[in-house]
């Protein structure tokens, strides 16, 4: 297939568009209550140093030494699904359109590892501020 041909372009777009989000090594747990949303709150990223890196690392495990999955910007909204005693929060990052449609805004009776369409991972809790929930 020659580069620049319609077939080559379509193949490249298909590869990029269908890339699955990187999954964390420690999965984010959702659900577990029949009458509450699978993830209870929406928070926004806050408290970043604008003279520093000005991003919040989404990590594969609740540790500053864990692999970085992506970088979150100030004011970006996330679903909060799980918290650890050590100051880490398991979050879901909605689609680029800002919809936060991750399939967790309704009850999921049995607690389980998140396997939906959104990127998931761990962030330092101190950089989140509750927006709703």
Secondary-structure map:
Elements: H1 6-17, E1 29-30, E2 41-45, E3 56-59, E4 68-72, E5 77-83, E6 88-93, E7 112-113, E8 119-124, E9 128-132
Antiparallel strand pairs: 1-7, 2-5, 2-9, 3-4, 5-6, 6-8
Explain this structure to me?
The protein is mainly beta and 133 residues long. Helices cover 9% and strands 32% of the residues. The strands form three sheets. The chain has a five-stranded antiparallel beta sheet with strand order 8-6-5-2-9, with no helix packed on it. Strands 1-7 form a two-stranded antiparallel ribbon. The radius of gyration is 17 Å and the shape is globular. The model is unreliable at 5-18 (pLDDT under 50).
* Mean residue pLDDT: 86
The stretches of 5 or more residues where confidence is low (pLDDT under 50) are 5-18
**Strand arrangement across the biggest beta sheet:** 8-6-5-2-9
Number of discrete helical segments: 1
The 3D shape can be described as globular
Order of helices and strands: HEEEEEEEEE
Sheet-strand content, in percent, reads 25-35%
**Portion in helices:** under 10%
| CATH architecture title | Roll
Biggest sheet character: 5 strands, antiparallel
The fold-level CATH name is SH3 type barrels
First-last Cα distance: 51 Å
Radius of gyration: 17 Å
CATH homologous superfamily (4th level) name: SH3 Domains
Structural class by sheet pairing and helices: mainly beta
